[in-house]
Amino acid sequence: MAAPTRKESIEKMQRAMESFGIVLEDTMLKQFMQYYEVLVQTNKVMNLTAITEFDEVLMKHFVDSVSLAKVVSCKGQSILDIGTGAGFPGVPLKIVFPSARVTLLDALQKRVSFLQTLTGDLQLEDIRAVHGRAEEFAAVPGERESYDLVVSRAVSGLPVLAELMLPFVAVGGKMIAYKSAEVLEELESAQRAIELLGGKVENVESFSLPESDIRRVLVVISKVKNTPGKYPRRPGIPEKKPIL
Ligand code: SAH
């Protein structure tokens, strides 16, 4: 089958987002197109993504990122994206939910510099890109237990993610991990960490992205009590010795 034209890919993206309840305004579509160009251009000189083909970027990065809208509303929410890389899922979420306040966190300075340029180019407001590790950012005054939503895609396993993400979630808020279809075992192994850190599994939403066979599982964990002050542990420890 011939590759879809750009117009076809854009229309597919619009239909997919509409099925999540998102109507793409002109400004948003322009921002996505500009994002694509900046991403692919910068990717030539910096390792940002293995996915560069137009149709694939639209589905696997843009549509996938905003599929979060299936499980929570982002309107007016404060959102932290841990290990955002080239901005996924945080930047697409900000594009389609302009009223959200977004913090993008990554441990690699060059990716953060890319994001600072990108968010400026896209004229996004109320979004910041911060260089740092989650383990250290949690000690910055005002950051701990201060977000409505904490999201993360392709960063680590659930026991580790629970320790990196839950400390930032305000009681009453949620962490949502973007996971693949084989999540059940991982979820099982994360039960203890989730409970210890003040979380409660609320929902495991499993679906395919519209008009594709790309599977996605969103693990939604509510913050039901405060996270003990000793978590997260020092940088690297959550990964080396996960709470099991
Ligand atoms: N979320 C993006 C990028 C995934 S790659 C996407 O789905 O495309 C993982 C990213 O997480 C890398 O950019 C890496 O620098 C960052 N990362 C890994 N551990 C981290 C930590 N402890 N704190 C902050 N960023 C971290």
Describe this structure in words.
- By secondary structure, the chain is of the alpha/beta class.
- It contains nine helices and seven strands, in the order αααβαβαβαβαβαββα.
- The chain has helices spanning 6-19, 26-43, 54-66, 90-96, 109-121, 134-137, 158-165, 184-196, 237-240, and strands at residues 78-82, 101-106, 127-131, 147-153, 169-179, 199-208, 215-223.
- Strands 3-2-1-4-5-7-6 form a seven-stranded mixed beta sheet, with helices on both faces.
- A hairpin with a 6-residue loop joins strand 6 and strand 7.
- It starts with 5 loop residues before the first helix and ends with a helix.
Largest sheet: 7 strands, mixed
Query: What structural category do the secondary elements indicate?
Result: alpha/beta
Tell me what portion of residues adopts beta-strand conformation: 15-25%
With helices defined by DSSP (H or I, 4 residues minimum), what is the helix count? 9
Pick out the low-confidence regions.
Answer: none
- The sequence of SSEs as H and E is HHHEHEHEHEHEHEEH
Rg is: 17 Å
What is bound: which ligands?
S-adenosyl-L-homocysteine
Question: What's the number of extended β-strand segments?
Answer: 7
Multimerization state = single chain
Main attributes?
seven-stranded mixed beta sheet, alpha/beta, binds S-adenosyl-L-homocysteine, 244 residues, single chain, globular
Summarize the structure.
This protein has 244 residues and is α/β, with parallel strands linked by helices. The protein has helices at 6-19, 26-43, 54-66, 90-96, 109-121, 134-137, 158-165, 184-196, 237-240, and strands spanning 78-82, 101-106, 127-131, 147-153, 169-179, 199-208, 215-223.
